Amino acid sequence: MSLLPSTVLSPGTAATVTESAEHVASDSSFNKSQPVHQVTTVDEAVDATAQPGVQGMEAIAIAWSKAALIVFYVLVWVVYFVTAIDSVAMGALAPYVTSSFMLHSLTPTVSIISTIATGVCNLSTAKILDVIGRPQGYALGVFITTLGLIMMAATTSVEIYAAAQVFWSVGYSVLGFTLGIFVADTTTLKNRALMLGLATGTPSLVATWVGGPVAEAFLAGPGWEWCYGMFSILLPVVGIPLLTLLVYYTIKAKKQNIAARSNLPTQTNKTFMQKVKYYVLEFDLAGIILLTTGLALFLLPFNLYPMQPKGWESPLIIGFLVAGFVLMLIFAFYEAYFSPVSFIEFRILTDRNVVGAGILGAVLFFSNYAWASYFSSFLQVVNGLSVTDASYVMSISNVAWPLASVLSGIYINRTGRYKYITLGSVLLYMFGTGLMIYFRRPDQSLGYLIMCQIFIGVALGSIMTTPVIAAMSSLPHQQVAVVTSIISMFSAIGGAIGLTVTSTIWAAVFPERLALYLPSEEVVNLVNIYASLEIQLSYAEGTPTRIAIQQAYGDAQRMMLIAATAIWVIGIVATLAWRNTDVRNIKQVRGQVF
To answer: What keywords are annotated for this sequence in UniProt (predicted)?
Structure first.
């Protein structure tokens, strides 16, 4: 699954979303009294006031034909398809990777830093797309994702795996974020939700049934390392044709002199160091480092404290908490008084649609990660499913939400409204997670869990796309990337907090209940049982030890699901705060678009 085109938010992996016109700090275009640009013809010039990246994509859209636009979307679909398979396979493999190092309990922990970095890095990605260009940002995403996959294939320790997760998650986010911006660049607002569903959602319909068997085949054969190696080759192969298409039409647009004369400062006559200084300031590198490091240091103790002899009283844990909090304070102070280019435009953050969309994204990712982190393990240990069958159940929502998103997109196309379909979906998601509080127990039928997954998947059909539509409804084209990145940042931070809550509950409840339920002769093996999924599965179904493990799983899952359900109260309030703008008469983009 994922909020927006960028993060495919699925129950085993981490996880979307937009832009600016001049400097984020000094942009005066975000003014509610200023009308959004109305598109009149395909052959118009690009916006001379927009940043180079926005101008470049508008020039491409003016230069290409309808046939090229269709080919573009086919290539976008193929890239999403491959990354969706990769995402499903990684979700199935993650418990086995951490278990191979006897650290199964770190399954969600290794994703926390990468999740935080993902959300924050999208702000820089938005700047890259706006200041440098869309094709360059896409190429960067393919490169970093491939590098992360290569590192995973070469993993020899959980530390290297965690580092590889960071590279993969950041690259995957940059790639998905950029593809999502491509969709925003090439659709009218009334068609955007529909095209997001078709181009970025429908690949999951097939990937859901392929990712699990791929993971199981490699686990039973050459090993999980080779699975990552295969994707490190496959991704560039399918990614390069799309880049080639963009480069071709960029060159064609330049030859046709489509690009406008820009009033923005040029970097052509500046020295190398002057250019470096310019881009460092434009990307707010200092702010990104402060915020990413601060959030990571603040959240990590919630996962690492069980590994420390003194727990919360450990100097390391206290040091992380204090250092993280201080760095976040320094970040706020730096952005308010010293940053030459503001990290986040204040006036954008005061818009209720933008704020509400960001909060809803955070709630969605918190809830998803709060209940999904140990879902694969639960299905295998409690329900006795294979890796493949567990991945099928986990991915049922990935089948339901693309279909529902297309229907949601058709609804928005016809009515122009998005608020109340989102509110209904929020209530349905809350209902689905609430039911799992009762049904995710050892003595319940698997069919009830599948029913809950269907409810959640249908709800995701609109929740995955409408927050961005709501936020974009009051913005011009040049603001799309920055606002999407803000929503993505909220979503990633919500996901990181959800992972932290999950890890904390797991570390506090699961071993305690194991000690309570295990037969006395097995208590000596408690640490090994807690640390390894494979050891948990080694006890036969129906044995006292396996039953004890299943009961401990049920108790821990219940606490996670209560948190995942309760958080949706905030999501309801955030959705009610939106304006319900009619998007049928709002046109942001130029050129040959859908």
So the answer is: Glycoprotein, Membrane, Transmembrane, Transmembrane helix
